């Protein structure tokens, strides 16, 4: 068959056809970490957690939870294969367009609650470094890199697709013809079902900018895994009054309208409508549409509803590997389908979570990422742990020594990114910067209060307890921090006259390009203050202050924030945290229809006792801050 070839498709392009080896996608399957359960009953909580911590073959397989996954598709798709290969009934993808705004979004700043005037403003948040890197990986070498990215992606998607499954790919006029050639190669020319023209009524060029015909459509390519075995429910559109009058011109004795077709009566009441053709007249979402939630390429629910209804049945599994604003997951939920959706953008995950929570009787779902497993994989590749050949009986010693060397190299790497000087010979102190000591957290565990206390004790030994005045201090760098670090650890440090700061190691550290370009920034953790009030078994929490690092915001945006609550877009509560996944039992968030949030929440416990309550706040940029407080129901 005819083959499309681009630079980068073959590892050894100079070899003869048939001898060269194609470049294939990364196939590292990493375990998923469940970081939040949403809308799940307390009774199902532990059972659900046991299920997601166990093998897919256990009895809990029937306890399905829809999945919202934050991560790079390069790792997410291969990680889905062990459990879902050949099990996805429908795949809908809206691949990245060749525009810089792919990862940008419009964020809103709500009004100051202490001021009567409506001060609501909005601004465009540019892509993060990691999102820019994803864009560069896709389009960095122009069409060649895009086609390689597309090819590797659809190879994995085909493996996930069920034998009777379907896939729809939304494309525009720039690449549709190239992508069809790739899809023919991967899925087979014979499994191409239809080219669908989406007439979006989004005409541009009225001011004369268009040099020729004005573009007013996109394309959806519809493929199946088996040309003769796939789900399809024919869709119909209702007859117009004009059509009814012109077509059903006869009236029966009982008053029913009908038309004569091949000498037999066809009654209007028995007509299902007009079969929907492959040209779809569905309006593009306008900026003021209620569905709009900040993404410039957001698709209308009507479009996805047509696809999902036609090519899946209730209970089927739908996958969207380009979550964006969550349209596919939202429609799949409303149409009683199971769903998995993922995205690299933190804000996309947050937007989708809010959108799903707005659906009446939303079924429980979970939020996942690859977390420490992705970092472990990066550390293994970046600081090779392969033991050197050693005499028999010394393999374990060699591996241990190699691991210590790897950890040392990792900590040196982080210290250098932080523009500090490395410090060896200590257990908890790993570097210094501007007169302050630096501690680097491990890739697979959060920085805990005990870690901080141990570091402070080692700091005393180094400088002397009497000299550990407030002018000296320690910076703690970590991928994650325990819930109670900001207050408990800071309080301990203050009592011992040690100034501490907590800074997050950004995920961009995993991306070589971001490191090479010097794009790594360490931001201090946001600080959340909560008041706790107890009235017998009723506990009331009130948000009292939220201090958010503002390094990532333009000056004009900062100036629009006049009250701390304007930073907060969403907050949720786990009323009985049991040292497991955050269990979202209550939430308040801003929407277009209701831009205000509640700042207090109450809960009545069934039994007396002391409870750990965890609060998660998500700011207007999609970053989350978590805090634990103690409450006693009497």
What are the SSEs and their pairings?
Elements: E1 33-38, H1 42-53, E2 66-70, H2 73-84, E3 88-94, E4 105-109, E5 121-125, H3 129-139, H4 143-160, E6 161-171, H5 176-187, E7 192-199, E8 217-224, E9 236-237, H6 241-247, E10 250-251, E11 257-261, E12 264-267, E13 274-275, E14 279-281, H7 301-311, E15 317-320, H8 327-334, E16 338-343, H9 346-357, E17 365-369, H10 371-382, H11 395-417, E18 421-422, E19 431-433, E20 436-440, H12 449-463, E21 473-478, H13 485-495, E22 499-504, H14 512-516, E23 523-524, E24 527-535, E25 538-547, H15 555-559, E26 568-574, E27 582-584, E28 586-589, E29 600-604, E30 609-619, E31 624-633
Parallel strand pairs: 1-27, 2-16, 2-17, 3-6, 3-15, 7-14, 15-16, 20-21, 21-22
Antiparallel strand pairs: 1-17, 4-5, 6-8, 7-8, 9-13, 10-11, 11-12, 18-19, 19-20, 22-23, 24-25, 25-29, 26-28, 26-30, 30-31
Helix pairs in contact: 2-4, 4-5, 7-8, 12-13
């Amino acid at each position: 068959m005819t083959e499309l070839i681009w630079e980068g498709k073959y590892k050894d392009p100079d070899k003869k056809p048939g001898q060269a080896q194609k470049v294939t996608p990364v196939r590292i399957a990493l375990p998923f970490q469940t970081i939040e359960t949403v809308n799940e009953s307390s009774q199902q909580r532990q059972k659900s957690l046991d299920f997601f911590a166990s093998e897919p073959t256990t009895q809990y397989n029937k306890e399905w939870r829809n999945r919202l996954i934050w991560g790079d598709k390069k790792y997410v798709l291969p990680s889905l294969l062990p459990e879902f290969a050949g099990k996805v009934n429908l795949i809908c993808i809206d691949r990245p367009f060749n525009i810089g705004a792919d990862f940008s979004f419009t964020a809103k700043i709500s009004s100051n609650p202490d001021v009567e005037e409506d001060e609501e403003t909005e601004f465009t948040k540019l892509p993060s470094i990691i999102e820019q890197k994803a864009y560069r990986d896709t389009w960095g070498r122009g069409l060649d890199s895009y086609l390689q990215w597309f090819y590797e992606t659809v190879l994995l998607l085909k493996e996930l697709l069920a034998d009777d499954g379907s896939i729809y790919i939304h494309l525009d006029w720039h690449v549709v013809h190239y992508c069809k050639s790739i899809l023919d190669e991967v899925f087979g020319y014979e499994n191409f079902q239809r080219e669908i023209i989406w007439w979006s009524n989004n005409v541009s060029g009225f001011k004369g900018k268009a040099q020729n015909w004005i573009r007013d459509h996109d394309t959806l390519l519809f493929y199946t895994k088996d040309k003769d075995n796939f789900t399809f429910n024919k869709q119909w559109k209702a007859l117009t009054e004009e059509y009814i009058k012109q077509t059903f011109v006869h009236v029966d004795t009982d008053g029913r309208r009908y038309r004569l077709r091949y000498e037999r009566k066809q009654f209007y009441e028995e007509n299902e409508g007009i079969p929907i053709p492959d040209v779809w007249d569905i309006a593009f979402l306008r900026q003021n549409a209620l569905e709009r939630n900040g993404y410039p390429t957001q698709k209308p629910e009507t479009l996805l509803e047509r696809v999902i209804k036609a090519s899946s049945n209730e209970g089927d599994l739908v996958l969207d590997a380009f979550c964006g604003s969550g349209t596919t997951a939202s429609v799949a939920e409303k149409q009683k389908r199971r769903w998995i959706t993922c995205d690299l953008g933190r804000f996309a995950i947050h937007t989708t979570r809010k959108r799903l929570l707005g659906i009446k009787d939303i079924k429980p779902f979970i939020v996942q990422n690859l977390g420490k497993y992705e970092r472990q994989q990066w550390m293994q590749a970046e600081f090779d742990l392969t033991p050197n050949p050693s005499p028999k009986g010394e393999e374990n010693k060699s591996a241990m020594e190699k691991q210590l060397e790897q950890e040392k190299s990792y900590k040196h790497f982080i210290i250098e990114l932080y523009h500090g000087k490395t410090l060896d010979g200590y257990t908890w102190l790993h570097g210094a910067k501007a007169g302050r000591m630096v501690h680097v957290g491990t890739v697979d565990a959060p920085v805990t209060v005990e870690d901080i206390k141990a570091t402070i004790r080692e700091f005393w030994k180094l400088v002397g307890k009497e000299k550990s005045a407030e002018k000296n201090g320690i910076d703690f760098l970590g991928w994650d921090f325990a819930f109670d670090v900001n207050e408990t650890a800071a309080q301990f440090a203050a009592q011992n006259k040690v100034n501490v700061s907590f800074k997050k190691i950004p995920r961009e550290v995993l991306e070589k390009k971001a490191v090479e370009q010097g794009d790594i920034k360490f931001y201090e953790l946001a600080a959340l203050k909560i008041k706790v009030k107890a009235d017998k078994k009723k506990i009331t929490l009130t948000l009292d202050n939220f201090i958010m690092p503002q390094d990532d915001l333009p000056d004009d945006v900062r100036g629009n924030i006049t009250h701390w609550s304007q930073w907060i877009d969403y907050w949720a509560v786990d009323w009985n945290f049991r040292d497991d996944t955050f269990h979202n039992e209550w939430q308040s968030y801003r929407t277009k229809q209701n831009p205000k949030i509640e700042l207090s929440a109450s809960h009545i416990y069934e039994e007396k006792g002391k409870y750990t309550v965890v609060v998660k706040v998500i700011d207007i940029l999609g970053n989350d801050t978590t805090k634990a407080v103690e409450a006693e129901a009497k």
